[in-house]
Design goal:
With 205 residues, this protein is α+β, with helices and mostly antiparallel strands. Helices cover 22% and strands 16% of the residues. The structure holds FE2/S2 (inorganic) cluster (FES). FE2/S2 (inorganic) cluster (FES) binds next to loops.
Length: 205
């Protein structure tokens, strides 16, 4: 329990598990891609980053609130930082938005519009991968995946199945079933929890 100052406003907190929850309680919108309150915290997208009074940046989803904390959620530095993150994500993302099932309901698309991103200044060096349509219910489009890990955690933590995992590292990192099997060849029960938490069109029904 304590009081923190967010954008010059004092906000009381009680048992919120992270700074992001206190920010949201104060009615302030900070974008996120990898935060799902019902899942464990992953801290991958860094969009929820805020700035403290000394100019230090940190991910608000992974930080416990402390009494006396002073933070800012929308400084010029943060805006620039978040825009660069979205541009980098778009660079490695299949941008067939107009024919994507998720168009109009995609968090990445929405953020791009809000940030006024019209061009992506980075080259897409990610290898294109085939769409997995082997399952009777779940379609996996790896080229639209932004590696937020939401589907992996939902499958494990909500459904207890663990069909999906993150294979390889760095720019090769890919969400896939073990041994790159098709979804239809795994123990996937077709619950669709992965689809619910996927912020893009990487997993559709
Ligand atoms: Fe905090 Fe993604 S929401 S790092």
């Amino acid at each position: 329990m304590g009081i923190m100052t967010i954008d010059g406003r004092e906000v009381e907190f009680t048992n919120e598990k992270n700074v992001l929850s206190v920010i949201r309680k104060a009615g302030i919108n900070v974008p996120t891609l990898c935060y799902q309150p019902e899942l464990s915290i992953y801290g991958a997208c860094r969009l929820c980053t805020v700035e403290d009074s000394r100019g230090k940046l940190f991910a608000s989803c992974s930080e416990e609130p402390r009494d006396g904390m002073v933070i800012y959620t929308n400084t010029p530095k943060l805006k620039k930082y978040r825009k660069m993150i979205v541009e980098l994500l778009l660079a490695a993302h299949c941008r067939d938005c107009t024919i994507c099932d998720k168009t109009g309901n995609c968090v990445l698309q929405d953020l791009s519009y809000k940030m006024g991103i019209k061009e992506v200044p980075y080259e897409n060096t990610r290898e294109r991968q085939p769409i997995d349509e082997s399952s009777y219910s779940i379609v996996r489009a790896p080229n639209k995946c932004i590696l937020c890990g939401n589907c992996v955690r939902a499958c494990r933590e909500l459904q207890g199945v663990e069909t999906l995992g993150i294979a390889f590292r760095g720019t090769d990192a890919t969400v896939m079933p073990a041994f790159n099997k098709g979804m239809g060849e795994t123990d996937c029960v077709g619950c669709g929890q992965c689809r619910v938490v996927c912020p893009t069109g990487a997993i559709t029904i």
